[in-house]
Design brief:
two-stranded antiparallel ribbon
C-alpha cells in the first residue's frame, strides 16, 4: 500500500516543476505562490483569450476588405476578338450589420462570464489552500502530541519491566504496558503518514514537485478574527442577497438576455456597406470609366422563420434564468444561515477550549510542582493533555477561519488574511 502511495507521488511529481519555497512557509506565502502556479486559473485565462478571439472575428466584419482583380482576356464582338482585359482595386467596407452587432454583444457577455468564472476559481482555490495549509499544521501538532504520549508509555513500560525483574509486578501488568506502547507506536506511524499525506496534498495544490514539498510551516496567528463580533444573521443575509458574486452574475446574464431579446425583436437584419472600384478595363473603357463608388443596403422583407425561432428561444431562456435566480436565492439564503450558525457554534467551542487550555496549563504547573517536591504526580499525562488541547484549539480556530472565509465569499466581501 505504501509502495503504491509513493509511486503515485513520484508520478505526480513528473507533471510539475521545481519551485524554491520560502523557509519556513507562511500562509501568506502559500496564497501568493498559488497565484503564479494555479493551472486551473491558467486554463480559464486561455478561455478568456479564446472568447476575445471570437469577439475580434465579429469586429473584423467592419474592417475594410481590399482586393486586386486582374484579368487578361478577349471576348467575341461582331465576329472579331476584342480585348477584355482589366485591372481593378476593389474596396468594400461594411458600415452596419445588425446581426453582427447583436453577436458582438453576446461575445462580450461570454467574456464577462469567463472572467467571473476565473474569479470563482481563485476563490475556491483560496479555501482549498487555506485548508491544505491548516491540515499540515494540525498534522505536525498531532504528531508532537503522539510523541509525548509514546514517551510516557515507554517510561511506564520501563518502570513495570524493572518491577517485573524484581518480581514486584506481574506478567499481566507488563504485557498491558507493552501493548499500550505498541498501540502508541501505531499511532505515531499513522501521525507520520498524515504529515506526509497533508504535505503531498499541499504540494499538489501549489503545483510543485513532491520533493519540493513544504516541510517547515509557520502557524498563523488568526485569533484576532475570533475576537471580532460576528454580527446578526439579518445583516449577513442582506449583504449576501445584495452582493453575492454568483447571484450578481446570474442577474447580469438575465439583463443581457433581455437586451438581446429586445435587439432581436427589432432586428431587421439590415446590412449597410460601401464599395469603391478603381482601375482600367479594355472593353468599353469610355463608357465604364476608371472608378465606381456605391452604397449598398440589404434588408429582408418581413421577419424570417429563423428570427422568430431566435426570439422564442430567448423568451424561454429568460424565463429559465428568472427561475434559476429564484432557486439560487433560496439555496443561497440557506447556505448563509448554515455557515452563520456554524460560526456561532465554532466560536463557542473556541471559547470553551480557551478555558480548557487555561485549566490544562494550571494543572501542568501543579503537576510539575508536585514532581519537583517528589510528591506523586501525573506530569506526563498533564503534558499530553496540554498539547492535545492546543491541537483542539488550533483546529477550532482554523475551522472558524475557513467558515468565515466562505461566508465572506458569499457576501462578496474582502477575505484577505
Amino acid at each position: 500500500m505504501m509502495q503504491a502511495f509513493f509511486t503515485l507521488i513520484f508520478l505526480l511529481s513528473l507533471t510539475v516543476r521545481a519551485v524554491d519555497l520560502p523557509n519556513p512557509l507562511t500562509l501568506g506565502n502559500t496564497l501568493q505562490l498559488a497565484k503564479n502556479q494555479n493551472l486551473d486559473e491558467q486554463q480559464q485565462q486561455i478561455n478568456i483569450e479564446l472568447n476575445g478571439v471570437i469577439l475580434d472575428e465579429y469586429q473584423d466584419v467592419y474592417k475594410p476588405k481590399i482586393d486586386l482583380d486582374m484579368q487578361l482576356a478577349r471576348r467575341a464582338y461582331d465576329n472579331t476578338g476584342v480585348d477584355n482585359s482589366h485591372a481593378f482595386i476593389k474596396i468594400n467596407q461594411v458600415l452596419f450589420d445588425q446581426n453582427t452587432s447583436i453577436n458582438q454583444s453576446i461575445a462580450e457577455s461570454d467574456i464577462q462570464s469567463s472572467r467571473f468564472k476565473l474569479q470563482q476559481i481563485k476563490d475556491n482555490k483560496t479555501v482549498e489552500l487555506m485548508r491544505g495549509f491548516f491540515d499540515v499544521v494540525l498534522a505536525d501538532m498531532r504528531y508532537e502530541t503522539i510523541l509525548e504520549k509514546l514517551a510516557i508509555s515507554a517510561i511506564q513500560e520501563g518502570r513495570v519491566r524493572d518491577d517485573f525483574d524484581t518480581q514486584d509486578a506481574s506478567e499481566v501488568e507488563l504485557l498491558e504496558k507493552q501493548a499500550q506502547t505498541q498501540l502508541d507506536i501505531g499511532e505515531r506511524i499513522e501521525a507520520e503518514a498524515e504529515q506526509i499525506v497533508t504535505r503531498a496534498k499541499l504540494a499538489q495544490l501549489l503545483n510543485i514537485a513532491y520533493e519540493d514539498r513544504p516541510d517547515d510551516l509557520t502557524k498563523p496567528k488568526l485569533d484576532h478574527f475570533l475576537k471580532k463580533e460576528l454580527g446578526e444573521f439579518e445583516v449577513w443575509q442582506k449583504k449576501v442577497l445584495a452582493q453575492n458574486p454568483i447571484l450578481q452574475d446570474m442577474k447580469r446574464t438575465l439583463l443581457n438576455l433581455k437586451q438581446q431579446s429586445s435587439k432581436e425583436s427589432n432586428n431587421s437584419e439590415i446590412i449597410v456597406s460601401s464599395n469603391i472600384r478603381l482601375g482600367e478595363q479594355a472593353y468599353q473603357r469610355d463608357k465604364n470609366g476608371k472608378w465606381r463608388v456605391g452604397l449598398n443596403l440589404v434588408m429582408p422583407i418581413g421577419q424570417s422563420y429563423k428570427q422568430k425561432r431566435k426570439i422564442s428561444e430567448l423568451y424561454l431562456k429568460i424565463k429559465q434564468q428568472q427561475l434559476s435566480i429564484k432557486q439560487f436565492s433560496q439555496s443561497l439564503n440557506q447556505e448563509a444561515l448554515s455557515l452563520w450558525l456554524r460560526l456561532r457554534a465554532l466560536s463557542q467551542k473556541y471559547k470553551a477550549t480557551i478555558i480548557e487550555l487555561d485549566y490544562r496549563d494550571l494543572y501542568l504547573e501543579r503537576s510539575r510542582a508536585n514532581y519537583e517536591m517528589e510528591i506523586k504526580s501525573d506530569i506526563g499525562n498533564a503534558m499530553v493533555n496540554l498539547t492535545d488541547t492546543e491541537w483542539k484549539l488550533a483546529k477550532s480556530e482554523f475551522n472558524y477561519i475557513i467558515t468565515l472565509t466562505k461566508l465572506k465569499q458569499l457576501a462578496g466581501e474582502d477575505y484577505e488574511l
